[in-house]
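REQUEST FORM: STRUCTURE PREDICTION
Request ID: SP-0412
Submitted by: Lab K.M.
Chain count: 1
Length (residues): 451
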Amino acid sequence: MTPETRKLTNVIILGCSFMFVFTAFQTCGNIEQTVIKSINSTQFHGSGYTSLAIIYTVFSASNLLTPSIVALLGSQLSMFISGLVYSAYVAVFIQPYTWSFYLASVVIGIAAAVLWTAQGNCLTINSDENTIGRNSGIFWALLQFSLLFGNLYIYFAWKGEKHISDYNRRTVYTALTVISLVGSVFFILIRKPVSEVQSTENNVPDDEHEPLIRTQEQPSQAVAAFKSAINIFLTKEILLLSVCIAYTGLELTFFSGVYGTCLGATNYFGDEAKSLIGLSGIFVGVGEIIGGATFGLLNKFLSKYLGIGRNPVVLLGLFCHILAYYLIFLNVPNDAPVVSDVGTNEAAYLIPSKFIAIACSFLLGLGDSCFNTQLLSLVGFMYAQESAPAFAVFKFVQSISAAIAFGYSNYLMLQWQLLILCLTAFCGTISFILVEWNAKSSFTSRGYDRI
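STATUS: Completed
RESULT:
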């Protein structure tokens, strides 16, 4: 196997691993609030929005420390352990208790920070300046397949259901736990790139003090990674790009937790309201996959022959999202995010349409892929030598905004949530374009690749 083939294989395995783990976690998050409203137990009084707010709060607080953990454990072991924690979180819903639910929310917040920092490091060391765009697209497309499989099951299993029974809940979450464990095992199959292996072999001491030297080097690597994360966070480029990164956290919260709940709470959709949660997730995934494949796998063709760089892709993402928010404003009742399990009988400006609802799901997924593939590509290119700290900062900013969004999702009417999303989308797009222009001028001498 050639070095380039090994690297590409690693990226595919990485994407497949995340696909399995996040088939479980994203399906869990998509249906979480709806399931919790249906739980009939005096021992459980949790909130899905509160849980997700805790996850992303802990996630953000942990991100600046996780480069040190990844430096100590390595990206492969870090991802494997984190995958097991994700599995444990999903398993909590088989027999939920309030204390275990919120404890798992805290622990998975730490694991998520480690997982995504290790992922960014693994993706970068298996890429170079010419392949980072392609590999980001491959990873993103594989990851977003996770939105299809779990949600497809939800659509058929919950069709016609007005209330989620304990049996249905246990069946779904047992299956999701097993799927997450399979993804965790896949992380073990990732192999070191040839260049990394050779570098390790060249630097291995031959004397009897080798274990001592490695033990002494690990803490220093951890400290260096932490300092690097702080320094990167304070750079002008990242501070400016943080506006766009923060927007991706807000819109992630909306399409992964809020929008599906709104559809499930809209009584105008009749007996199919609950199954629309799954169908919405499927079409979000379709949009994500098409976007990842188009702007990742075909990036060289788009750049070379059509002259499409990062900025036009992000502008397309902005257009998709603003259109989706406008249609959702017209189609979904304003009180849908905050009503109880009985749902809302209110209508929006239009009589709620299933077709418009699903079209908006597709636009949300396509727009999200436009923003995220380009952000991954840009950050990976700008900080190729400091990938773990750079991606830790990326997730730090994204998770803070996601935590804030899940916090206000419990209280704000839909129109105010959409207004926040529209304003931050415009500001985030402007910040991305400015950083992209600066990166292009700064790295021209290095053979800058626009995607």
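NOTES: The radius of gyration is 22 Å.
Reviewed by: T.R.
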